[in-house]
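Predict the structure of DUF4349 domain-containing protein.
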Amino acid sequence: MKKLFLTLFCFSLIYCKKNENLNDKSISSMVALEDVELKSPAPSQAISEKALSDNSSASINNPSKIDSISKKIIKNGEMTIQVGDIKKAQQQVGEILSKSNAYVQKEDFRNTDTDESLNLIIRVPHKNFDILIDSFSNGVGSILSKNISSDDVTEEYTDVTIKLANKKIYLEKYRDMLRSASTTKDMIEIQEKIRELVDEIDIAEGRLRFIDDRVKYSTFNLTLYKEKIRSSTTSKIGFGSRFGDSFTEGWNSFVSFSLGIISFWPYFLLFPIFILIWKKWKRKTKK
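Done. Here is the predicted structure for DUF4349 domain-containing protein.
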């Protein structure tokens, strides 16, 4: 009988021991879970911060967007050609422009006593730029000056594109904030931020359009020059024509000299007054 009571007592002790261990484990697990929940941020805050960081760096860390931008090279040039007849040379230039799909953006003609000049600002497709230069170099006239330049703006274009994408992302964020704003002060501040971003976006888009236009159509400055004062080394002109030009030039110089002397007439009036004063002073010194 004693052995039976001892056996039951041992089983009860073992059972209580197991229950205590289980209770301790459950309590410790609950405490650990509470610690984790206290340390971890709110779900909405974590999601919003992650979305903001992902959106703000999406365009910067996206290599496919950067690689998709092709080379942006702006070509410019200028050339001065001496011709014998401005009108004839202008007709030749018009035919060359028609073949190259180019057009004249601005035209400026000047006519002086010594020369005539026609300045043309030409826009030509990028692919036809070199063909246009070769056409002007052959057959139009004598080249006096020539300057060709190329400017690689790929880095600037990429930088502006990335900043523009980021500004558009932040613009959408501010618009979402404006829809959920609760006070008038917050609404005014958010609207001011939106206005600034819209202005910056317009400027960036305008800069990209300008670069695209300069890349697509190159700018070429052509000057057709004709010298009026002729010499035997530049043209085959008879003695009579050269004599008439020299006579006209001499007469123009004489007229210019005479007009220059006449322009000193106030000094001629002061000269007699100076002589009278000098004579009076001389008489006083003699007395």
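The chain has nine helices and five strands.
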